[in-house]
Amino acid sequence: MEKGQLQQLQSFLSTSKNIVIVPHRNPDGDAMGSTLALCQYFNNKGHSAKVVAPNEYPEFLRWLPGSDSDVILFDKQNKQAKRAIESSDIIFLLDFNALHRVGDDMAKTLELYKNDFVMIDHHQQPDTIAKYLYSDTSICSTAQMVYHFLEMLNDVKSITKDIATCLYTGIMTDTGSFRFRSTTSETHRIVGDLIDKGAQNDKIHSNVYDANSYSRLQLLGQALTNLKILPEYKTAFITLSEAEKKKYNYKKGDTEGVVNYALSLNDIVFAAIFIEDEEQEIIKISLRSKGDFSVNQFSRNHFNGGGHDNAAGGKSDLSLKETIAYFTSLLPNYKNDLQNSYEA
Ligand code: 5GP
Ligand code: MN
After folding, report:
1. Ligand 1 neighbourhood includes 126 CB (under 6 angstroms)
2. Separation of CA 171 and ligand 2 centre (Å)
3. Per the domain annotation, does 274 fall within a domain?
């Protein structure tokens, strides 16, 4: 964020304000960790802050500090959410780059918003809706950016144990437990500081990763059974139909991370999962890659989505079968890129 902008924002926040903080739809660990951290920070500073999430977040994040008291769900608690938005002095948009990422309904409400937006995000090509923009695509997570934001405010000292716990969770989940390329020595220094401030790393890992239900593991088993490999294109993909989701009692968040199993195959650089979503009448797509093959670009080109170079998402209005046919028909155009996607 530019210095002048930061000063302006700082002076705006020097008196008590009503603040709303918004993560993207289907919020993940980074979205919830970063919004809840910032929310608690502002409340501790004498503001009145709430997180307004477009919809429900996965069960494995419901233990996060503040998640029972600070979160309003736009879809389920619509009146309360709209009231919070309308009576707010400023809105922070965290972990997404374009308004439509909150879903059509909530986007409509936000489009009518009269006051200013602040955007803190690490996705590529951010929209221009925010008066105050802190965008950096090189940073592994929005949670790490919230830490840097507090550094800019000269207030890292105000990070409590609860805030540290939320930030740690965001960084951990968005870096695949500190393994992706975006994890830097600075990330580790910050994580070290968060542990010093009280984040219990072993507990956080176990809360997030050892929270499987039996049916979730069975759903994973089905997903792995459906896994297809296209060695010519160094590509692997997984499908899950609505019937399969029902059979294994699917709950939000159950498919999180499943696409990574496809990417974990040796000699695979491009992985995808296609999940039928009856409610939204779409096929939700998650794409992952290794090396230089940009799934952000691929998704923008063909699946109405985006994200990062190595992790992106998108959607298709075709049936599951047609979507797969379309996807596989695209691959010959990328054969060279996929064969040569360099992996350090
Ligand atoms: P996931 O596959 O885990 O849902 O998302 C991977 C990354 O791509 C995340 O950073 C997410 O924000 C982004 N992403 C997922 N779906 C979409 C989408 O439909 N549009 C855009 N622009 N980004 C997406
Ligand atoms: Mn993120």
Report:
1. no
2. 8
3. yes
**Residue 344 within a domain:** no
Give the span between the Cα atoms of 40 and 69, in whole angstroms.
Answer: 10
Show the domain range for 199. 3-209
Q: How far apart are CA 97 and CA 87, in angstroms?
A: 23
**Distance from the alpha carbon of residue 305 to the mean position of ligand 1, in angstroms:** 7
Q: Which of 172, 189, 209 is the last residue of a domain?
A: 209
Ligand 1 near 253 CB (within 6 A): no
Q: 243 and 302, same structural domain?
A: yes
167 within some domain: yes
For residues 105 and 227, membership in a common domain is answered with no
- Looking at the DSSP assignment, which residues form a beta bridge with residue 19? 49, 90
Does the Cβ of 234 fall within 6 Å of ligand 1? no
Enter the pTM of the model.
0.92
Please name the residue that has the structure tokens 């020595």.
Answer: 185
pLDDT (tens digit per residue) in 92-120:
999 999 999 999 999 999 999 999 999 99
Out of 177, 209, 241, pick the residue that ends a domain: 209
User: In a 3-state reduction of DSSP, which class is residue 59?
Assistant: helix
pLDDT score, position 343: 60
Ligand 1: does its nearest atom lie under 6 Å from the Cβ of 27?
Answer: no
